[in-house]
Amino acid sequence: MTETIDMIHEDALPGHESALEPKPDWQPRYPGSGRLKGKVAIVTGADSGIGRAVAALYAREGAKIAIVYLLEDDDAEKTKAIVKDEGSEAICIKADIGSKDACNTIVDKTLEAFGKIDILVNNAGEQHPDDDIVNITEEQLRRTFQTNIFGMFFLTQAVRPHLGKGASIVNCTSVTMYQGSASLLDYSSTKGAITAFTRSLSENLVGDGIRVNAVAPGPIWTPLNPCGGADKEKLEHFGESTPMGRPGQPNEVAPAFLFLACEDASYMSGQVLHPNGGVIVNG
């Protein structure tokens, strides 16, 4: 089952994981223990990269998954097959989260398929490197904010009436929020907004028993980087500036999303985890 909703734009993003070499590591590393048994999760950007790894791990832990993606049908179907291989169920919803109407429909389709929603993972994002601020067009600036932060607002607004006590929201921010990025001015600005959104939303919902947290990955090998405009030289040295001297893999980030979504993190809200290769950000 694949639903198609309200497409706004089409460009090189987010890119096909099926065409990426070497392939990112998405496979869960450990047997499941039922930590999400009976849960239903919406995961945006779940066709590839971190989103695919999260969907795979959540499925191994017992969750049913709504795979939300923008363009890459083949990647989304691969993630759906991965979820099925883990013994769970998934639907694919092709949608642009930058549209409020699309976000409302994502929630409707998830409820139609699974009857409830327990976890929202706001993972989808886009980036467009520019070394000079004057080169960032108004269209690009609006589009980056539309996807990266407006989409989180829209989808959270749509899902909020269906979240009960014990539900969890996990947002994806970035190490660039804490370090800054000379060539990702608009992207890093949205990630700062996401961190503030996470902390404020936590304060807003914690009294209702709904936890809100975030993950701030460092350089992770996903389609976002080669398809987001990084040049060949940057890709050759991607991640080497971290203390570990390498980029991370999606399956090194997904456990942070699992921890924050399950009861292991029952006393955590408004917090950010930092799988970033050893970068100290004190935030």
UniProtKB/TrEMBL annotation:
Read off the InterPro entries from this record. NAD(P)-bd_dom_sf, Sc_DH/Rdtase_CS, SDR_fam
Keyword field contains Transcription? no
Chain segments carrying region Disordered: 1-31
Q: Basic and acidic residues compositional bias: what residue ranges?
A: 1-26
Keyword annotations for this protein, in alphabetical order, are: Oxidoreductase
GO MF annotation: an example: oxidoreductase activity, acting on CH-OH group of donors
* PANTHER family for the chain: NADPH-DEPENDENT ALDEHYDE REDUCTASE 1, CHLOROPLASTIC, NADPH-DEPENDENT ALDEHYDE REDUCTASE-LIKE PROTEIN, CHLOROPLASTIC-RELATED
The Swiss-Prot or TrEMBL record describes its family as follows: Belongs to the short-chain dehydrogenases/reductases (SDR) family.
Q: What is this protein called?
A: Short-chain dehydrogenase
Origin organism is Croceicoccus naphthovorans
